[in-house]
Amino acid sequence: SAAMPTVAQAVKESPRIEKKNGKAALFVDGAPYLILGGQANNSSNYVSQLPKVWPALKDIHANTLEIPVAWEQIEPKEGQFDFSYVDELVKQARANDMRLVLLWFGTWKNTSPNYTPDWVKLDNKRFPRITKKDGTMSYCLSPMERTTLEADKSAFVALMTHLKKIDGDQHTVIMIQPQNESGTYGSVRDYSPKAEKVFAGQVPAALLKKKGIAKGGSWSQVFGKHADEYFHAWHIASYINEIAAAGRKVYDLPMFVNAALREPLVEVGPETYSSGGPTHNVIDIYQAAAPAIDIIAPDIYKRDSANYEAALSHYTKHNNPLFVPETGSDTEFARYIFSVLGRGGIGFSPFGIDYTGYTNYPLGGRHINPEGLKPFREKYALFAPMMRDWAKIAYEKPVWGVAEADDRKPQSIDLGGKWKLDVMYGEWQFGLTEWTWLGKFDPVPGREKPNGGVVVAQLSEDEFLVTGVHARLNFGVGDKQKGKNLIFRAVEQGHFENGKWVVDFVWNGDQTDYGLNLTGEPAILKIKLATY
Ligand code: N0T
């Protein structure tokens, strides 16, 4: 009947984060969605720059653009809004078949108020900055000020109201990041008289509960040497939460915050990083203070594998969905998509992906051009054609992933006890690892830096979906069936069509006798294991 919703209408549900069995998925149009992202440079948020953004995203097979919307550009005069950039951005995203994650650059952008309108950033009286311990003024706006919060909130609500109007039926915009790398450098918290008063007061019950602390008290009494940082984190998180919640009330989109990292592997004090931001040691505080935030996300610019993997471990704790909204655009960073997806991540996004000519090297790559972006392109090429399938499988089935480590040594994955997978890095078309008896060969080009990796999903007891690059795979029997010999029932290369696996051809002979070789060419394998 005419009253029945059509299929197209029925699937246009609002994007949302869903969680079950310790896993998380980003649902877009009613089904899990994998963010193969690229974040534009900071100053690419103008209509004139957009034509230089889309080609870079396309060159890496991205499906989602992360890009700023700045408070200064939508509310240049107090109470007067200009959404012309947002309108054009959404229009062009649709024309380029791209989804959007919008980054709200408001009170805190890399902790600073530089993206606030001049009527905010030039009015210290109305919008006070933090007072440092020695009584001098910090650059950073204070989270303790109601006026600032209300002003930011009203701009953000105006943005969300506008998004609902222009995009509430299509959901080109799938997620929002309120603020960017909040916190404060150079002062652990606000020491203004107003803040001091609150600091002397009681720790909120919700925080005590989250921390499992029975006996309340002042911040110093309860948290000792961590009191200053926890206090600041609580107030920034609460501030962001109030803004996010007000925005979600008018238009309910998933929201996340991003962190400028604290050292992942060494204990350092808050005077060395953005104190009060969502660093790994305060994830639980953010969760307690900011229920309107779905994800606490790490911006990872450490190139080395030890730090990178440690950062990922930190941000998968506390039942926090894993999403990497920023990472370096250089070669070494691309491999970590396998670590992220192997940990059940909902998305991955290098930073500075546009052809404006800017690069944040040495945080990212030196050459943001088709050649420089190749490491990302070859990885996204694996997932782009099956991004819905992978997202669904990762939400429902066990998954593992490894990125080639800096030592470039082989790694072994325990696939749940019955089977295991040994991964070694490099490329061979035939035979053993080193054909010493055949003499020396030219090194494989493009393998100067570690760029390999593999992900595996268990489809059923003896069936695995595998993809990766620059790796050789050797499956084996696990501890649970020691003494048996493994044999492939079949190694299928194929693709997904409307959610169904379609076999293109079957690997055998040279392609399987010495391990399964994944090169830089996209190959998705379904492996059926057996024993004899
Ligand atoms: C990031 C980006 C942009 C290992 C830097 C990273 C982006 C912001 N900040 O290009 O500014 O908007 O979120 C801070 C990295 C700290 C240094 C890490 C050294």
Can you describe this structure?
28% of the residues lie in helices and 27% in strands. The strands form five sheets. The protein has an eight-stranded parallel β-sheet with strand order 9-6-5-4-13-12-11-10. Strands 14-17-18-23-20-21 form a six-stranded antiparallel β-sheet. The mean pLDDT is 95. It is an alpha/beta fold and 532 residues long. Helix 6 (146-167) packs parallel to helix 10 (227-250), helix 8 (205-211) crosses helix 11 (283-289) and helix 10 crosses helix 11 (283-289). The chain folds into two domains: 12-385, TIM Barrel (Alpha-Beta Barrel), CATH 3.20.20; 411-531, Chondroitinase Ac, Chain A, domain 3 (Sandwich), CATH 2.60.220. 48% of the residues are buried.
What distinguishing features does this structure have?
single chain, 532 residues, alpha/beta, TIM Barrel, Chondroitinase Ac, Chain A, domain 3, six-stranded antiparallel β-sheet, 17 helices, 28% helix, 27% strand, binds ligand N0T
Summarize the structure.
The protein has 532 residues and is of the alpha/beta class. It has 17 helices and 23 strands. Bound molecules: ligand N0T.
The biggest beta sheet, please? 8 strands, parallel
CATH class of the largest domain reads Alpha Beta
Sum up the overall morphology in one term. Answer: globular
Poorly predicted runs of 5 or more residues:
none
Bound molecules: ligand N0T
Quick one: CATH superfamily of the largest domain? Glycosidases
Side-by-side strand order of the widest sheet: 9-6-5-4-13-12-11-10
In round numbers, the mean pLDDT is: 95
DSSP summary, beta strand count: 23
Share of β-strand residues: 25-35%
- Helix tally equals 17
What would you call the structural class? alpha/beta
Mind telling me which CATH architecture of the largest domain this is? Alpha-Beta Barrel
